[in-house]
Amino acid sequence: MLKKKETEEKEARMNKQRPAIKNMLRGNPNVFHYTSFETADQLFAQHPIWQTVRIESERRQLFREYIADLQQREQVRCIDLSIKRQTKREISSESSPRDAG
Length: 101
Known about the structure:
By secondary structure, the protein is an all-alpha fold. The protein has a single domain, classed as FF domain (Arc Repressor Mutant, subunit A, Orthogonal Bundle), CATH 1.10.10. Helix 1 crosses helix 4.
């Protein structure tokens, strides 16, 4: 029963902090899909929003959620670029003159 209450409290804290952390990370040009938690922790050590998440494991989890979203978007972007390049090559090869051999 106590464990369940602790889990509920943790989720409530994280749900409250998640939007602020995401906005802070989204608004910083130094955060990329490959940024590590250690780098972010150094970068935001003095930031008031970062400091509001007092438990490091929760801060780490919120950061990982954000980075996972960035990584997913980056993967989709790379796939889109690959498809565009392939389509461009196909169109280019179809429109180029063929040898009359």
